[in-house]
Structure to design on (434 residues):
């Protein structure tokens, strides 16, 4: 099994999951409940992510409580109000965007980085590697969820310290991701911000250099 | 297509790719060459990752030049020598570990975060979201590569500024990941650091809390 060679057909499944994954907000979650089994499968993908020095520095809070979700949504509202003034002429468009699905999603999962108290192999020159490992876990969750036909939305317009206080998180832990998880009415043909022309897709070739940077930059 | 429902069989493919992905070092890369087409498929997975505010803040340098790889390996050697003294009684074990495959892998890919000069939607409260988006791209690459039966190793024992100087990277960009990419003799049954008993696997249930933190921490 360890040396399993994936077939072209299997490669195409991965490719499709990657291409059809979307960031889901409250306008697309349905109230269909998400079973414990599905949440376990998503978390199992998370803990199978690579981690620096095999530190596995991740911890998760699975939230179904309506009051807690509502309190987190309040934290979002405060931060989002502050944020929108930063977008000048785009401010009115910004105000119309639905940027989270905290209360609409039946499940929220907060993902934390728990720093080690001792040096970690591989993290001695690049200290962010611990957090980066947790992000790898999040991306595994997102893809596994899409394969399970479950949508995920990452909410980042949050004050991490307020979220930690709400969830009684130990001081040393850092919030990496706050995910809204649930079934959806549709996944969307393209990223919503591309459809709404907030930003254009960048051409792949414009992002790639060979051997050294050249031209660009 | 947008609303494609993946079958159980397809879900199991994703699960296998996630479970069978490994971090590959120089003791497992073969010298079989990696085609441009395969590199393009891996990069295509990268640019299909989620990104905060659809900022797509990633840039890539694909390195095949032996001299450049050798110079990067020198940067690793300096950092690794500094690192090993931090592991006290484990120092002698550390010294025996093969922690990179820079020269052995036919292709290296350096992945950078290019910060935006304007505020980015979703990045106003959590400034690391740009880097985190790039890490999502890296994890997509890693999984796509595994599905293509290609190994990836993430080398983090590097001085990012020296790497940037070697690759003529614009000042504003940040090194997120330095990846070694190539075919392998084997993928390993478990993470190498687990096999070598450098660290134990953590139990999934010990990492998960419900609604709020409790007990642990």
């Amino acid at each position: 099994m360890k040396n399993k060679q994936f077939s072209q057909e299997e490669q195409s499944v991965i490719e499709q999951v990657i291409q059809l994954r979307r960031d889901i907000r409250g306008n697309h979650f349905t109230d269909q409940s998400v079973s414990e089994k599905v949440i376990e499968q998503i978390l199992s993908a998370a803990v199978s992510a690579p981690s620096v020095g095999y530190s596995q520095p991740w911890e998760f809070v699975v939230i179904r409580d309506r009051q807690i979700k509502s309190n987190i949504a309040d934290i979002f509202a405060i931060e989002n109000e502050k944020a929108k003034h930063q977008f000048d002429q785009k401010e009115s468009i910004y105000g119309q965007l639905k940027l989270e699905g905290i209360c609409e999603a039946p499940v929220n999962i907060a993902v934390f980085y728990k720093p080690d108290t001792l040096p970690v192999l591989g993290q001695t020159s690049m200290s962010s590697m611990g957090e980066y490992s947790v992000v790898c876990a999040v991306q595994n969750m997102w893809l596994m969820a899409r394969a399970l036909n479950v949508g995920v939305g990452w909410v980042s317009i949050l004050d991490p310290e307020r979220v930690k206080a709400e969830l009684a998180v130990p001081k040393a832990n850092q919030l990496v991701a706050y995910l809204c998880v649930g079934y959806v009415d549709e996944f969307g043909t393209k990223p919503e911000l591309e459809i709404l022309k907030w930003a254009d897709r960048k051409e792949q070739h414009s992002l790639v250099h060979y051997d050294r940077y050249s031209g660009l930059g």
Summary: Residues 42 and 122 of chain B are 26 Å apart (CA to CA). Chain B has seven helices and five strands. Chain B has one domain: 22-197. The radius of gyration of chain B is 19 Å.
